[in-house]
Amino acid sequence: MTYLVTARKWRPMRFDEVTAQEHVTVTMKNAIVQNRIAHAYLFSGPSGVGKTTTARILAKAINCPNVKEGEPCNECDVCREITEGRSLDVIEIDGASNRGIDEIRDLRESVRYTPSHLKYKVYIIDEVHMLTKEAFNALLKTLEEPPEYALFILATTEPHKVIPTILTRCQRFDFKRIEIGKIIDRLRFVAKEEKISVDEESFVTVAKKADGSMRDALSIFDQVAAFCGGDIKHEVVVGALSMVDIELFFRMTDLIEKNDSKSAVELAAEIVERGYDAIDFLAGLSEHLRNLLMASTTGNADLIEASADYPARYVEAAAKFETLDLLRMLKLTSEAMQQIKYVTQPRIKFEMTLLQLVNMEKTVRIQDLLQQVNELKKKLNGNESASRSQDYTGNVNTSNTESFANSNRKSYTVQTSNQKAARGDAADYKASADVSKATKASEVRGSYGTNESTFQEIAVRWDELLMAVRKERIGVWSQLINLKPLGTQNGWLMLGAPNDVVIGMTKPYKTYIQDVIHRVLGTRVAIDFVISNHDEPAESAGTGADSPVVRFLKDEFGAEPIDS
């Protein structure tokens, strides 16, 4: 087999060729130049980012007779032996298959022997976290005080599984995932050397598919090159890797913006028919929504990882959505990806998710809602000024008045702070009051006298009074709808409340309520509050779908009830 895969053929041979790990490679070169080589290193990080490659370069650099500025020459016999894996003094151990205490004991015995012909004897233990606890303990003493010619390099993808006593005996270097831009630069170099034509969008697709791993990127590049030959096009790459076309994601967000449920269901069927996995589509949609979120938040495409044709489209599309809506959509798709793994009917869950996205209500900001309320109040106040000039007295329907009055002539219980009033006819309200109230009533009866006709007019036009309050002070209105005119007592209009909590919250606005009655009816009245148990609740104090609060939300903001 003469063919060598790209990942091996183009493996970095010098520190300068290692991609995106300068914080490690520069330190290693400086340590070699200053002769400050440690006896043990721990390289941790995701797979395919250069841990073992860097370890091999370090082994060459500390043994190369022609080392220059910390870099190996890669031409001498020492460098070639290490590169080709023929050196007896550079031992690579797989921690997964040599994880027991017996293997570590053999390693300890091997360390006792000096190098055969190199300056340093280097032990590279890959996936060191796979060693057993006993094996780690057997390695401790050797790792802490090895012979001066021995160097240990431990590599792992899961450093948290390495026991602390090992970690404290090593210099630790954390390798990071490689940025898409740097992966693309390396792929572009390899494609040029291999004389393969690749469009820019294909580079982006391969780099994103690699998810920060250079080795994975080169392996995917090999696969695509084998499928496409010497000319790689994006359309073919998407098919070769079974990836979801980005245009489907733009279609989906267009449907969300238009609330097009029918087309969303058809898109779901198309995705299934084309053989795409539902989780893969949702994962791609999450990334797509993330790009929209970045464009919406920053106003530009600097944080978007896409080919040159798409950043402008993302900025344009992001303008159609609120940032909070994009966050909610991202949350929904993330939850769906987790849930779809465990449902018995993944397709149904997938279709439900797309329909939820399409039918999701738009976010309304509090400041925008308050602005609408203020504009509405101004508009209603203008209408109220015009309506004050009308003669309400002449428009009172006698039959309605009698009907309302009769409906309120029911027995009720009144409880004041000192005593309970007796049940009686509403029109002949004769509940006893304490001395202070009687004195108070006598003082205000002359200017605030409330007779039967005044009470009947207030009873008939109570909803109109509530509307006037609602236009001006919604908070007061929300409490006033729980009250009902009961009758008169010593010239006072008595308003019945279901409990003393409502009374306590309404009482501070007594003067304001009296002013509203005067403005609407042209009559000054004095009001007081009592606890009343009504046989039938007043219409204005309804609950559920018929309550005034619900009606207000429906009328003013187009609210609709939803199932909880």
Question: Notable features of this structure?
Answer:
Rossmann fold; Zinc Finger, Delta Prime, domain 3; 12 strands; 564 residues; five-stranded mixed β-sheet; alpha/beta
Compact description:
With about 575 residues, the protein is of the alpha/beta class. The protein is about 55% helix and about 10% strand.
**Text of the CATH class of the largest domain:** Alpha Beta
**Which structural class is indicated by helix and strand composition?**
alpha/beta
Note poorly predicted spans. 388-448, 534-544
SS field, number of helical segments: 26
| CATH superfamily annotation of the largest domain | DnaA, N-terminal domain
Euclidean distance between termini CA atoms = 65 Å
**Radius of gyration based on Cα positions:** 41 Å
- Biggest sheet layout: 5 strands, parallel
CATH-defined topology of the largest domain: GMP Synthetase, Chain A, domain 3
Shape: elongated
Which percent range describes the beta-strand content?
5-15%
